[in-house]
Amino acid sequence: MENLVTTGMSLPVFAMVLAAACMHAGWNAAAKLNLEPILTMALISASAGLFALPALVWFGWPVPAAWPWLTGSIVLHLGYYVALAEAYRHADMGQVYPIARGSAPLLTALASLAVLREPVAPLAAAGIVVLCAGVALMALAKGGGKPLSRTGLGLALLTGILISGYTLVDGLGARAADDPHAYAAALFVIDAVPLPLYVLWTRGRGVLGLARGLAWPGLGGGLLALGSYWIAIWAMTVAPIALVAATRETSVLFATLIAVVLLKEPLVAARAVAAVIIVAGIATMRLA
Q1: How many CB atoms are closer than 10 A to CB 58?
Q2: How many other C-beta atoms are found inside a 10 Å radius of the C-beta of residue 152?
Q3: Which DSSP symbol is given to 9?
Q4: Which of 73, 98, 181, 262 has the smallest set of CB atoms within 10 Å of its CB?
Q5: Nearest residue to 236 (alpha-carbon basis) of 6, 53, 15, 60
């Protein structure tokens, strides 16, 4: 594939990644709104794969060079789903989401610079740092909800590491595939299988009865997950992976709004300040 990656991000790509961030917060809310987050995530991954089937028929399978990356991504995604679902069982969305999503872009940026030697414009790099600082403040802010346990914190950080891992793998895989759309379609279709099988294996057939009541959150979340990550995969072929990852994590703003309005989780002053810092980070990256 022709190398279209630059040190910055064009306005159309930036706007699409912001839209993807909003979609991502939406499907996470669909998972947290239910008492069975792992089951809801299984339905989300399965429905996303179903929605991706027509695209796979249209674009076809990616070239062989992409398959090692595709395999690694499937493994990392399974670990991510399980870690995130467990984190949501131990802590509020307003605690887990900022930590998981906020630690990921900094880890991705460091790995991208150290391992891939992928250049990022200095102002864009400054924006990433500012954004991560805002997310860190939001994650550490104490509110009126339940205290963040060590287990919840550990699972949220593990989720962030896995996010960074599959982001790098999918960015490189989409570039190796010669067609990011073929790569994305194949990823969603294959990824639709492991998590539902894991849930059946760990929970037994009795979980199928619970699944019926979660059909609509699963379908809606699947559509949001498909649109969100498909955009990100494509964006990583035309912009630096670190910059796409950081912009995508602005989803914490949308997630905070959802957590406060829909989940009735408390919003404290520190999180409001953190939101302003995150917006400043976004503006700085955009100026690059």
Answers
A1: 10
A2: 21
A3: -
A4: 262
A5: 6
Q: What is the DSSP letter of 114?
A: I
- Of 10, 48, 9, 11, the residue nearest 26 (C-alpha): 48
CA dist 183 and 168 (Å) reads 14
Q: In the chain, how many H helices and how many E strands?
A: 13, 0
Q: Cα dist. 51→34, 222, 223, 282 in Å?
A: 22, 8, 7, 31
Cα separation of 188 and 284, whole Å? 33
Retrieve residue 202's tokens.
């760990």
pTM summary value: 0.80
pLDDT of residue 3: 46
State how far the Cα of 250 lies from the Cα of 24, in Å rounded to an integer. 10
Backbone angles phi, psi at 118, to 5 degrees: -90, 120
**Residue position matching structure tokens 């979660």:** 214
> Residue 134 corresponds to which amino acid?
G
Query: Amino acid identity, residue 77?
Result: H
How many of the other CB atoms lie within 10 Å of CB of 102? 26
Do residues 177 and 63 touch, judged by C-beta distance below 8 A? yes
Strand ranges inside the chain, DSSP E: none
**Coil, strand, or helix at residue 143?**
coil
Note whether 91 and 265 are within 8 A (CB). no
pLDDT at residue number 65: 94
Rg (CA), the chain: 18
Least confident of 87-96, 112-121, 137-146, 168-177: 137-146
105 contacts 134 by C-beta, under 8 angstroms: no
